[in-house]
Structures are given as structure tokens and as C-alpha cells.
Design goal:
CATH architecture of the largest domain: 3-Layer(aba) Sandwich
Structural class: alpha/beta
Strand order of the largest sheet: 2-1-3-4-5-11
Protein name: DNA-binding transcriptional regulator
Organism: Rubellicoccus peritrichatus
CATH topology of the largest domain: Rossmann fold
Number of strands: 12
Radius of gyration: 23 Å
Keywords: DNA-binding, Transcription, Transcription regulation
Number of helices: 15
Largest sheet: 6 strands, parallel
CATH superfamily of the largest domain: Response regulator
GO molecular function, one term: transcription cis-regulatory region binding
Distance between the termini: 31 Å
Number of domains: 3
Order of helices and strands: EHEHEEEHEHEHEHEHEHEEHHHHHHH
Helix content: 40-55%
InterPro entries: Homeodomain-like_sf, HTH_AraC, LacI/GalR-like_sensor, Peripla_BP_I
Strand content: 5-15%
CATH class of the largest domain: Alpha Beta
């Protein structure tokens, strides 16, 4: 175990780590300190004897150099202490502080694109927009993207916050809303936790997932998504990278003077970007649509690591090339060749983030003669080079 040096920065880390979002941030903070530390962390552990001591009293006892705080009414008084703060908001970002916030609008867009490209043509959003800024922004990104495609969105808004997860009277209103949605609706829910409740409500009113309602959440909490009746698709967030960047930003503030107040420094927000949709059975188009198109999509997904052509897909189904082309375009809104290209680029992006292979090695593994063509296509569709994508969204141990 690494010894803590006397000069190590003392950081009060006031996040519970009970949710996947917080755990991802904590992993990123740990990665930064393992590379650039050590830091000495102080945590409030509720079951220890100091559990009845207020957080303010604890922090004054610890005398930390900086704070990383998840929003809580118990911590408000700490924000006036003369030290740098990285703030993780729940209801609204705090002006004058460096906030850690999700690019929620982009999250909504990503979910909308996934559902639309799955062939769905009815859409709905379930959130807590009146209470939380991130729910409002996810709804905006979702609705505006689908408006660009010419579709409207049915919206259900809970006004109960976390209390709604305890199945209050509003649960019956949610059930009625779900009953009224048309079949083959793509439904985005603002968080994975809320998605679990929505899935239970669907089961209660006899709406099957994904045959009638295709469901997608946010956060990719595997403890939720993989343990539901129907495994649930979700937008994965790059929380680990954001935690790393937040620690780096706090280190910059500390380097200017360990007792410098956040009110004397210029706030710099850290943004958590969406990575990708982790598709599970809850949005599986192969269970929902035209059987020939479903067969074609399954064929493409099974061979995504190989340079397949449109003729390969046609040979896998019982339709003629023209008939399959028309059916496929009608269901997915894309041509077969465009669908193959997009899924291949998504797979390439996933390998950039999840492996230490070089870009040339990934290209070779996917059947490209060189990395030039896929790099050019990637930049055209993603707006940045593969190297830039890996630097922005990946960890800090991958190779070039």
C-alpha cells in the first residue's frame, strides 16, 4: 500500500457511491490520484461512531485542502468554506462553482437516434422535468432530434422525484399513460432507476417489452439493466473520464494555493459525455418488426467485425434485392449500405474505447486493408479523428 506523504493534498470526498454514476466518477478520481498523487481522502462513513456528527463539523475536523461534493441539503454550509470545490449537482448547477455536469442534451439525441434507427415511428419520454435540470435537457435533446425526423413525442412528467420510485398514487397515472401509447413506441426514460419502475408498470398493464414498447434508460447501471425482466438498453456515460478531469481541475486550483477559496478562482465545469447506447433486449428490433428486416439486422450485427456487402445481406433473406431494399428503408429509415457503415463505425468506436489496440490493429481486425478509409469515414461521421475521439472519450492508459 502506498504511504501518504505529509505534503499530500487532503480532500474531503462527500459522495456516497451508491449509484453507478457516482462510482464511475470515483473510479476516475482514483485513476488520477494513482497517476499523479498521492492524495489523502476523508470520507463520511455512516456506520462509524462519528455518524451523528454533522458534515460541517467533520470537515472542520479534517481541515481538508479541497472538496468534491455531491449535492445535498446537509452540505450547503460547506460551500462557503474557503477552499476549492468540485460540485456534483442534482437539482440545478451552482453558479460560481465548478460543476460536474452531463451533456444531457446529447444523451437525449443519442437515445432518439438509437430508437429511430431501430425502426420505431412512435416515441415517448418519461422524466422528472419539473424537478431536475438534467431530465429537462435529456427531454429537449430527445424531442428536438425526433422533430427533425418529423415525429412528435408523448411526454410523461413525474412531480414526485425519488418518492415516485416508492410507487405513490402517481404510479396509476403512469400506468394509464402507458396503456394509451400506440404499439411499437420507442420510450426513453430519464434514468435507469426510473426505467425499472416503468418496466414494472408496463408489465402491470400488459404492455410487452420490446414487442409493444421499446425501452431505453440512461446510465448503463448493470445492476439495474441486466437484472430486469427484460434486460434494458441504456445510454452509457463517460463518468470515469469526467472523474479524472474533475480531479485534474481540482489539482490545478490547489496548485494556486491550497486554502484558496473557490470564490477567488474562475469556475470551470467538467462535462460528462455520453459514450454509446448499450443495446439490450428492451430495444431489440429483431423481436419487433418485419421478419425479413429483422433477419437482415441480425445478420449485420452478427458479422459486424467483417467487411460485409449488401449482397451478403440479400443472400441471407428470402426477398429480392429491390424488395429487401424497400422494406429495410421503410422500417429503419436507412439504406442497407448506410446501416452497415453506421454499425461498423459504432463498432470501431467501441473498440477505440474498450481496448488498448492501436487504430491500425483495430482496422486490420475489422477487415480493412489499411486504417486510412475507416479513419476518413470515422472523421466524416463523428466530426473528429479516431485519435481525437480516443483522447476525448477514452481513459488515460490506451495507446495511439
Amino acid at each position: 500500500m502506498k504511504s501518504v506523504l505529509p505534503s499530500a493534498p487532503r480532500i474531503a470526498l462527500l459522495m456516497e457511491g451508491t449509484r453507478n454514476y457516482e462510482r464511475g466518477l470515483l473510479r476516475g478520481i482514483a485513476k488520477y490520484t494513482n497517476l499523479h498523487g498521492p492524495w489523502q481522502f476523508y470520507r463520511h462513513v455512516p456506520y462509524l461512531p462519528d455518524q451523528h456528527v454533522s458534515p460541517v463539523e467533520l470537515v472542520r475536523t479534517w481541515q481538508p485542502d479541497g472538496l468534491i461534493i455531491r449535492e445535498s441539503e446537509h452540505y450547503d454550509e460547506l460551500l462557503d468554506l474557503p477552499m476549492p470545490v468540485m460540485y456534483v449537482p442534482t437539482t440545478e448547477p451552482r453558479s460560481g462553482l465548478s460543476n460536474i455536469v452531463v451533456n444531457d442534451y446529447a444523451v437525449g439525441r443519442m437515445a432518439a437516434q438509437h430508437l429511430y434507427e431501430s425502426g420505431l415511428r412512435h416515441f415517448a419520454f418519461c422524466g422528472m422535468n419539473a424537478l431536475f435540470f438534467w431530465s429537462r435537457l435529456r427531454c429537449e435533446g430527445f424531442c428536438e432530434t425526433l422533430s427533425e425526423y418529423g415525429h412528435e413525442v408523448s411526454i410523461f412528467e413525474s412531480s414526485q422525484g425519488d418518492e415516485f420510485l416508492n410507487r405513490n398514487d402517481e404510479f396509476e397515472t403512469l400506468q394509464q399513460w402507458l396503456r394509451d401509447l400506440p404499439s411499437q413506441t420507442g420510450l426513453m426514460v430519464c434514468t435507469d432507476d426510473f426505467s425499472l419502475l416503468v418496466q414494472e408498470a408496463c408489465l402491470a398493464v400488459g404492455r410487452s417489452i420490446p414487442e409493444e414498447i421499446a425501452l431505453i434508460g440512461v446510465g448503463n447501471d448493470e445492476a439495474v439493466c441486466d437484472l430486469t425482466t427484460t434486460p434494458m438498453s441504456s445510454v452509457s456515460l463517460n463518468t470515469e473520464r469526467a472523474g479524472y478531469d474533475a480531479a485534474e481541475q481540482l489539482a490545478r486550483q490547489l496548485s494556486r494555493g491550497t486554502r484558496r477559496s473557490h470564490k477567488q478562482t474562475k469556475p470551470v465545469n467538467v462535462v460528462v459525455e455520453p459514450l454509446r447506447v448499450v443495446a439490450r433486449r428492451s430495444t431489440d428490433a429483431t423481436l419487433t418488426f418485419d421478419p425479413d428486416v429483422s433477419t437482415a439486422i441480425a445478420f449485420i450485427n452478427e458479422r459486424i467485425n467483417y467487411p460485409i456487402e449488401v449482397n451478403d445481406v440479400v443472400n441471407a433473406v428470402s426477398l429480392s434485392r429491390r424488395a429487401l431494399y424497400d422494406h429495410f428503408k421503410s422500417v429503419t429509415g436507412q439504406t442497407i449500405s448506410a446501416y452497415i457503415r453506421e454499425r461498423r463505425v459504432e463498432h470501431f468506436a467501441r473498440l477505440l474505447l474498450e481496448t488498448n489496440l492501436t487504430i491500425a490493429e483495430i482496422a486490420y481486425a475489422m477487415g480493412y486493408d489499411t486504417d486510412t478509409n475507416i479513419a476518413r469515414l470515422f472523421q466524416k461521421t463523428r466530426g473528429m479523428t479516431p485519435h481525437a475521439f480516443r483522447r476525448k472519450f477514452g481513459g488515460n492508459t490506451t495507446t495511439g
